[in-house]
Amino acid sequence: MSEYSVFQLLRETLRGHTGWRPAWRDPAPKERYDVVIVGGGGHGLATAYYLAKEHGITNVAVLEKGYLGGGNVGRNTTIVRANYMLPGNERFYSKSLALWEGLEQELNFNLMMSQRGVLNLAHTDGQVDMFARRGNAMRLHGEDAEIWTPEEIRRHVPMLDLDNARFPVRGALMHRRGGTARHDGVAWGYARAADRLGVDIIQNCEVTAIERDPQGRITGVDTTRGRIKAGKVGLAVAGHTSQVAQMAGLRLPIETHLLQAFVTEGLKPILDQVVTFAAGHFYISQSDKGGLVFGSSLDGYNSYTARGNLPMVEHTAEAAMSLMPCIGRLRLLRHWGGVMDMTMDGSPIISTTDVPGLYLNGGWCYGGFKATPGSGWCFAHTIARDEPHPISAELRLDRFMTGHELDEAGTGAQPNLH
Amino acid sequence: MRIPCPVCGERPSEEFTYRGDARPVRPPMDSSDQGAWVEYVFFRDDERGRIKEQWQHTIGCRAWIVVDRDTASHEVHGSELARDAAEGGQA
Fold first, then answer.
1. Which of A2, A205, A208, A291 is 20 to 30 Å from A280 by CA-CA measure?
2. What pLDDT digit, counting tens, does each position of A126-155 carry?
3. ipTM above 0.90, yes or no
């Protein structure tokens, strides 16, 4: 398993690409690990990587019920950003973005990281004020933020309809360091790096029970590939957090919802930034293949189906047409649904739990992708030290018991509104 | 997804507004039991399968109803008025 380089590519070109080897091992589960991470998505793999690299804990297994990267890390709209307002969130996402910026070099893996800027459009004077407030909060945390006038928006993003009679664009919040990254690549990059440090990545291995001793302490997990003993178990199973946590008797402030996403046929470059439409909660960017990648709100009711319904397809198409009427004749190439673990305040959970030896990473709502490196960084610390990382301290589970919710959207305990 | 309204009959789901799991019961308004309020406001069973949940027929008769729906398949098994459910009905 050598590094990827232009020389290796040349060598393999000359010998018909016969020399490439699998990027990570396919080990059988051992009898015992120091730490078992449940969930081989971006967050689980990043956690295993940082456990090994930053904390020297290499006797680690990542258990994935399907194939690596087959869950939400491969089903999102690939947006990376740190444009939050509340200190508990912004500090965390800012760390995550800083990790993103060095990740390709660290993992020696092309993540197609593209800091093309995230542009949040404002459609009323009130929204402009709100974005100015958020931009100031971001700058206080050392992030970049600018307010753009409609003229600036028109110059940089000419394909938008800024003069829509119902939703005119009055300004925007520009976050230049935000952008997109290749989502599958993130999973593969972390998997290869973790594997090299000795982490066992075990696919097609579904956890069916979490085992505890009479004192309640975690002793291991039962899986479709046998029992695995572990001193510590970390859950990183976004979308199925409630279900897996229930195996350890944990009841959570989470509802599971459904979110749809869409990709159009490819076209020449027409959109350089990630643009969000605040009048209808819609976000769009153009992939490097040329397809427009977009999505909007949750379907709005609890669901584990990963299969959306048509009213939200119609709503999303309406938002797209309001923002960019020029794309009206494009055909959709793909359209899919994903399962989101929505917390009651719309912010994630990285936490120790009441069960000794059990650690929780979940409730990413529909914003988990951008958090991948920061989540792994903080969750690894939480598992290794048995205490929250200072950066993610406000994402603890007990915030719901003490009245310290992080309600970024200000909508209250109604997950389908976050 | 179509939802049977006990008043209006079967209607498309976009006429309804979702509230969520119908089972949590609000503690008495004068209760100062913080744990009970935290449970009621934040914590959910979040089951995969059939659950009872509250919807309002917002673009219709505006009645609050309790719908028996499967979160793993979107199949709807029935509904009743929330008032009847609260009085011990069995949707």
1. A291
2. 999 999 999 999 999 999 999 999 999 999
3. yes
